[in-house]
Write a structure and sequence with these properties.
16 helices, 2 domains, alpha+beta, two-stranded antiparallel ribbon, Arc Repressor Mutant, subunit A, five-stranded mixed sheet, Homeodomain-like_sf, AraC-type_N
C-alpha cells in the first residue's frame, strides 16, 4: 500500500546504475526508507512519495552526493512518465503535449502538478509539489530536471532556457545545478519553474500520429479517471493548477475537468464543498508554505496567493493561524540539513 501521495516506480529509473559499487547498497537504503526493492524491477508499481524522498535523502547523505536528483535525471528519458509519455504520439505541437501532460500527470504522480504560463515572449513550466506532500531539495531538483528532460524530447534538442528557478536556498548542489540547466538560476524564488522562448510551444511534434490520437486520449482518460479518485480531489488539483496561473473560477475549473459548470457545482455540493472553499483551502496551505519555507517578501507572498491587497492577506493569515504572517515567520525559523536544505 502507498500513502496519500505516490509516484510510479519509473521515478526510480537509473538509480541502480548510480548505486553500483557504492555502500551502503541500494536495497538496504530502500528498506531503510520503507520502500519495496521490487519497485526497481516493476515499473507499474506505485511507490510512496514520502518513502522516495527519504530514499533520495539517504542516498545523498550516505554516498556524499548532494546532487543525486540531477544525477538521476541524467539517467532518464521521457519514458519515466510511463503511459503519459504517449502524448508525444497523440499531440501535434509542443504546446499540445505539455497541456496533455498537465492533464494526465496524476497517472504518474499525485504529489506534483504542472502549470504553463505565457508572459510576453516567455513561457514558463511551473512545477508545484503539493504543500502537504513531503518535500526536499534533492527531489525538487529531480522534478525540475525531469521537466527539462521532457522539454528536450519535445523540441528534439537541448532546450535553451531563459531561467531555472527554485523555491529553496542555494546549497551544496549549486554548481551541478548550474551545469545541468545551462542558464541563469534563481534561488529562493516564488516557485519552481523553467522559462523558455514561447515560440517553441507551437513547434510541431515529429512523431505525432493522427490515427493514434483518439485511442491514446481515450486510454489516458481512463487511466486518469482511475488515478484521480473522487470529484473533490480532481477539482482540488484543477484549482491548484488554475491558481498557479493567476485566476480560478467555477468555469475555468470545469473547463479543465471537461465538465459542464453546473454539473461540477452540483457534484461538489453533494460532497460538501465548493470551488470557493477549495480556493480558500489552497490559499491556506500555500500561505503557510510560502511564509515558513521561503524568504519571499510578504508583499510577494500576497501577490502569489491572488490577493489584491496585502492587508487582506494578513487578515486571512491571522484568521487561519492565529498570528499575522510577519510574526509567525519570525517565531517559526526554518531548519535545514546537508542533504535537503529543506526549503523546497
Amino acid at each position: 500500500m502507498t500513502g496519500p501521495y505516490y509516484a510510479r516506480a519509473t521515478k526510480l529509473i537509473g538509480l541502480s546504475a548510480i548505486a553500483r559499487g557504492r555502500t551502503p547498497n541500494l536495497v538496504s537504503l530502500m528498506l531503510d526508507a520503507g520502500l519495496d526493492p521490487q519497485a526497481l524491477f516493476n515499473p507499474e508499481m506505485r511507490v510512496e512519495y514520502s518513502g522516495f524522498c527519504s530514499l533520495l535523502q539517504l542516498c545523498a547523505r550516505q554516498w556524499d552526493m548532494p546532487d543525486i536528483g540531477l544525477r538521476l535525471a541524467k539517467q532518464q528519458e521521457i519514458d519515466f512518465l510511463g503511459p503519459v509519455a504517449l502524448v508525444t504520439r497523440s499531440e501535434k505541437t509542443v504546446r499540445g503535449a505539455i497541456d496533455a501532460i498537465i492533464a494526465n500527470l496524476v497517472i504518474y504522480s499525485n504529489a506534483t502538478f504542472v502549470a504553463l504560463e505565457e508572459t510576453g515572449g516567455t513561457a514558463s513550466v511551473i512545477l508545484v509539489q503539493r504543500d502537504d506532500a513531503p518535500q526536499d531539495r534533492c527531489n525538487t531538483e529531480l522534478v525540475v530536471a525531469q521537466a527539462k528532460c521532457v522539454l528536450n524530447t519535445l523540441v528534439e534538442r537541448d532546450i535553451d532556457l531563459v531561467e531555472a528557478s527554485f523555491r529553496h536556498e542555494k546549497g551544496p548542489s549549486a554548481a551541478a545545478v548550474s551545469s545541468y540547466f545551462q542558464c541563469p538560476v534563481r534561488y529562493e524564488a516564488e516557485r519552481n519553474a523553467l522559462s523558455f522562448d514561447t515560440g517553441l510551444l507551437d513547434r510541431p511534434l515529429a512523431y505525432a500520429d493522427q490515427f493514434q490520437q483518439i485511442p491514446i486520449r481515450r486510454y489516458l482518460t481512463k487511466l486518469r479517471t482511475e488515478a484521480a479518485g473522487n470529484i473533490v480531489e480532481m477539482a482540488r488539483r484543477a484549482v491548484a493548477q488554475r491558481m498557479e496561473q493567476g485566476s480560478c473560477t467555477l468555469e475555468t475549473v470545469a473547463e479543465t475537468l471537461q465538465l459542464p459548470p453546473h454539473t461540477l457545482q452540483r457534484r461538489l455540493r453533494a460532497e460538501g464543498t465548493t470551488i470557493r472553499g477549495l480556493v480558500e483551502e489552497w490559499r491556506r496551505h500555500r500561505a503557510l508554505s510560502l511564509v515558513t519555507n521561503t524568504r519571499l517578501p510578504l508583499s510577494q507572498v500576497s501577490d502569489a496567493l491572488g490577493y489584491s491587497e496585502q492587508s487582506v492577506f494578513t487578515q486571512a493569515f491571522r484568521r487561519w493561524y492565529g498570528a499575522p504572517p510577519k510574526r509567525y515567520r519570525s517565531e517559526m525559523p526554518v531548519a535545514g540539513n546537508y542533504a535537503t536544505g529543506h526549503r523546497s
